[in-house]
Amino acid sequence: MAIQRTFSIIKPDATRRNLTGKINAKLEEAGLRIIAQKRIHLTQAQAGQFYAVHKERPFFGELVEFMASEPIVVQVLEGEDAIAKNREVMGATNPADAAEGTIRKEFALSIGENSIHGSDGPDTAATEIAFFFSGLELVG
Ligand code: DAT
Ligand code: MG
């Protein structure tokens, strides 16, 4: 597997509880390098655009409201097989199903307030990185 880049968000439930450092430590321990990172506060319109793929789902309104509720930390992670590796260290969407040692198992509050986002494939990784970062901000 080649070196890949993926996109990650530390979500409002985690920034609110001051968990950015603990989550970053787990990402780094998994072998991922944080090559870009910034703290931003999305508007509901921006959150809706980012999660547009879920707009028909019953939880969409709740998701958008949550993601715009408080600041988030957006990141680009780089490493061997980074997309799958990041999904593994994140754990299952629902923390009740997440494996021991994963970020969601340790920190998530619920299926909605689940502490972290990670791209689910190469195409979404590229689109999501470009949504938040310019090429100049990516320092590999
Ligand atoms: P993931 O974030 O693991 O890729 P997803 O892409 O299916 O999961 O959903 C995006 C986010 O939407 C997820 O992190 C939390 C929220 N979500 C998903 N399913 C939900 C549900 N059944 N109820 C409430 N929120 C949900
Ligand atoms: Mg997803």
Automatic annotation (TrEMBL):
Residues 3-140 form the Nucleoside diphosphate kinase-like domain. GO terms for cellular component: cytoplasm. Pfam families: NDK. It comes from the Bacteria. It is found in: Cytoplasm. One of its GO terms (molecular function) is metal ion binding. Belongs to the NDK family. This is Nucleoside diphosphate kinase.
